[in-house]
Amino acid sequence: MNRKYPTLFFAVLYVGLLAATLSLNGCASVEEFQPNVREGGRAVSLAVDPSNDDVILAASETGGLFRSADRGRTWRYLDGFGGHLVRDVAFAPQNSAVVIATTKGAYRVDETGIWRSTDGGNTWAIPTGSKAPVGNRCGEIGSAWGIAFEPNTSRVFVGTDCGLAISNDLGVSWTHVQLDPTRPVNGRRTQNLIFSVLAQNGGRINAAGEDGVWRSQDGGVTWQRSTGQPRQLRGGIIHGLAASPYDQDHLFLAHRAGNTSALYQSSDGGATWSQLRSVARAWARPLFVQALTIPSPPGHQEYRVFFGDGVRTRYVTMVHDPAAPLDQGNWDLVRENHADPSEFAIDSAGVTPLVLATDGGVHTLVPTFLFLLKERDGRVHVHSLRSDGSVGAQVEQHDWSEGWTTASFFVAGATTYLLLLKEATGQVHIHQMNTDGSVGDHIHTYDWPFDWTQAVPYSVGDTPFLFRLKERNGRVNIYRLQLDGSVGAEVERHDWSEGWTTVSFFRAGPNTYLLLLKEGDG
Predict the structure, then answer these.
(1) In terms of Cα–Cα distance, which of 313, 316, 219, 299 is closest to 265?
(2) In sequence order, what DSSP letters do the residues of 434-496 get, joined into one string?
(3) What does the alpha-carbon distance between residue 227 and residue 321 come to, in Å, rounded to a whole number?
């Protein structure tokens, strides 16, 4: 089934022109695209071709692998892959013809474990020696989990039920190591299981699973267990480790214990960890964490950390500091039209999320746009915005009547609307916005009394409201905004003091706040 829920998000800035934009990186909104294959199921992992960002592989929980050649808009089932319970997939960074995939153990020995392709994912085989030797510490039908290629080398590391599988030749041959060979054997023989692996330059490897949380600084030859909490990683968390793009010692670990989903950080390469954030979740899918660079102001190195808590995705901006990452404190939710996220596919530059895997399939990012309006003559330009924040191609232009003093955008349900106000006459127009950024149908008209200087939409949770203010006498009305874009019932009214010239809303954590400014007296 192919479902799309187009959503655009805008925020307003007034600088002589009326301008509306979305935050950088397109991180505020995603929409779903499900490959039309009956066996598809939940998407659990994504891989971007390092030589071509248009090519993406998607691993499904029960239906094998899929390939897109157009950044997730269309998908093809890879019938050359012999497994079906896929857990992870990854391209070799220096040779995109080589792809490694992992599958969960089920009933057949010949379809579980580590798979390798040498033609970009079209055909596959299980490499000789990729299965750990069967014994009293390792079962016959074992699963393989997270994959990590060490940059600028031929080394690849894979977590398995029986420990860590290591290849020094891009997956042709394999050795196996149990990080704690003294750990007591359990009934499933998975006491040495490793779920998540992170490999960085210089042989710096981190691994986490039921066998504990570990690090190596010599390419996996020797290992040291992390001290303190967390003691181990459970719950099938395959993408549970991430590193700052600016410091290999600054790490993040997604962890689940009891009814709590938590994110930990380390400033010493994983030797010790401290909790950064926790969310109460009675039930959760496997967690994930990822970090990507974002445009930074002069003198700063900023990046964004995404934390999938098993139900929703949250993100925060971090500022790099040599001592420890500086959390900016405002965790925002990614607006998804299906919960239970698994992983973002990020472009080869490590900057832009391309698609998101969730329990509902694969989601594409909603494009972002810039809206410009001249009050004196009604001239309108709409431009696309690039992922680096620069202004892209013009989408359309209009010549409307003069005098529009306010242009603001709001989202109701899955649709974005444009609200226009003329202060001098009180005339209000509401348009539906199209997914290509162009202005759609004019669907509602209102004739308010003149002198309303502010008409600002805002949201509390997912519910949209309209804040209306008269500067000259401080009269305030608040209305509910309806799913069809219309202005609904009045919620409340106030008579404040005169002279409020600026109204803006912002979110910090789960709360929405109102900021008011009087230009005359500050």
Answers:
(1) 316
(2) PTTS-EEEEEEEEEPPTT--EEEEEEETTEEEEEEE-TTT-EEEEEEEPTTS-EEEEEEEEE-
(3) 23
pLDDT over 80 at 76, yes or no:
yes
Q: What is the C-alpha R_g of the chain?
A: 26
Q: Which of 382, 383, 420 is nearest to 402 (CA)?
A: 420
* Residue 199: per-residue pLDDT: 98
3-class DSSP assignment, residue 286: coil
Calpha distance 154→316 (Å, rounded): 33
What are the structure tokens assigned to 201, written together? 């330059």
Paired sense of beta strands 427-433 and 415-421, if any: antiparallel
Quick one: tokens of 381?
């330009």
288 within 8 A of 239, measured Cβ to Cβ? yes
Query: Which of these, 307, 364, 305, 312, lies nearest to 340 by C-alpha position?
Result: 312
3-class DSSP state of 237 = coil
The count of residues in the chain is 522
> Are 439 and 380 contacting, i.e. CB atoms less than 8 angstroms apart?
yes
| Tens of pLDDT, residues 139-148 | 888 899 999 9
400: nearest Cα among 427, 361, 435, 434: 427
pLDDT per position as a tens digit, 87-125: 999 999 999 999 999 999 875 556 679 999 999 999 999
pLDDT at 225: 95
| Residue of 63, 99, 42, 104 lying closest to 357 (CA atoms) | 42
Q: CA 466 from chain center: how many Å?
A: 29
Task: Report the distance separating Cα 241 and Cα 301, nearest Å.
Answer: 21
Q: Read off the amino acid at residue 254.
A: A
DSSP state of 109: G
Residues linked to residue 135 through DSSP beta bridges, in sequence order:
138
298-322 residue pLDDT tens: 888 999 999 999 999 999 999 999 9
Neighbours of 124 (CB within 10 A): 19
Whole-angstrom distance, CA of residue 479 vs CA of residue 370: 26
d(CA 49, CA 174): 23
Tokens of 185: 């054997």
pLDDT for the residue numbered 91? 98
Q: Are 183 and 232 in contact (CB under 8 A)?
A: no
Does 494 score more than 90 pLDDT?
yes
CA-to-CA dists, residue 294 to 53, 109, 345, angstroms: 18, 44, 15
Contact between residue 64 and residue 83 where contact means Cβ atoms under 8 Å apart: yes
| Secondary structure (DSSP) of 175-191 | EEE-S-TTSPP-TTS-T
Hey, is 201 helix, strand or coil?
Answer: helix
